Automatic annotation (TrEMBL):
CDD domains in the cross-refs: ASKHA_NBD_PanK-II_bac
GO MF entry, a single one: ATP binding
Organism from which the protein derives: Sporolactobacillus shoreae
Protein name as annotated: Type II pantothenate kinase
GO terms for cellular component: cytosol
GO terms under biological process: coenzyme A biosynthetic process
InterPro entries in the cross-refs: ATPase_NBD, Type_II_PanK, Type_II_PanK_bac
């Protein structure tokens, strides 16, 4: 039985994610980052008596809008690693002790996790912000959900240049369906390319870039598992499929845990549980 409601809130560059624990169990809630004021009002009204821990780049800005007495702040990377460990324990199979953690949110951050320790390896500006921003520049659609829906009927082979296309009539030295150049085919012929094709190719660009960086990190740290989290994977089957397939092709075990986009919020919540012991 939960004696007091608790909430962990991850204030990211695009989304605000909340994990709330009460007598009914664990629940999730999310807001756009632009809705920071509305989120604060919701917290004051719905969770006025709750103990709250914030994390993420915008944690201080949200804290300023709340009564500080019951509000703590925890490092984003610490919260994420705590949350990921909890989610992995709920996944089927054995929880890896050493792995690369790739968080693809607005941008992408890559960490090496070894037991209870973690170290940031690097990152990239390519991420969910790229997916939405570039797709909106190329099409008339707006918003993550609308873009993912548009991409459902898209064909990347109308836009991307594959290895097989370059070696047409010959046997390629590597898998023919691998991308030789993202958007490379569009440089030759743009006629007939639909918005769906464009968004599908943007998703491919982001997914392949994120995976490639993760695989290099795994090789550097000599680990066999990469855990992928972040809002970019939520409701985005194309992104998940590309990342899973490319990782496996390179001999890496990929894990995309359920509710991975809430890792930071879950970690912030669990830090409250830890402090209460």
């Amino acid at each position: 039985m939960v004696s007091k409601r608790k909430a962990g809130i991850d204030v990211g560059g695009t989304l605000i994610k909340a994990a709330i624990l009460d007598k009914n169990g664990l629940n999730f809630q999310s807001f756009l980052e632009s809705e920071l004021t509305q989120c604060a009002a919701w917290l004051k009204e719905s969770l006025a008596d709750a103990e709250v821990c914030l994390t993420g780049g915008g944690a201080s800005r949200l804290r300023e809008k709340l009564l500080p007495n019951n509000v703590r702040i925890i490092s984003e990377f610490e919260a994420t690693c705590i949350g990921v460990r909890d989610l992995l324990d709920k996944e089927p199979g054995e929880t890896p002790d050493r792995f690369i953690l790739t968080n693809c949110g607005t941008g992408t951050s890559i960490h090496f996790v070894n037991g209870l320790n973690h170290r940031r390896i690097g990152g990239s500006g390519i991420g969910g912000g790229t997916l939405v921003g570039l797709s909106e520049l190329l099409t008339e659609d707006h918003g993550f959900d609308a873009l993912i829906h548009t991409a459902e009927n898209g064909r990347r082979d109308h836009v991307d240049l594959t290895v097989a296309r370059i070696y047409e009539g010959d046997v390629p030295p590597i898998a023919g369906d691998l991308t030789a150049s993202n958007f490379g085919l569009a440089a030759r012929e743009v006629k007939g390319i639909t918005d769906a094709d464009k968004v599908a190719s943007v998703i491919g660009l982001v997914a392949e870039t994120v995976t490639t960086l993760s695989l290099f990190a795994a090789e550097k740290e000599n680990v066999q598992t990469v855990v992928y989290i972040g809002s970019s994977f939520a409701g985005n089957p194309a992104m998940r499929e590309i990342v899973m397939a490319y990782s496996k092709l390179r001999g890496i075990v990929p894990i995309i845990p359920k509710s991975g986009q809430f890792s930071g919020a879950i970690g912030a919540l669990l830090s409250l549980e830890k402090n209460d012991r």
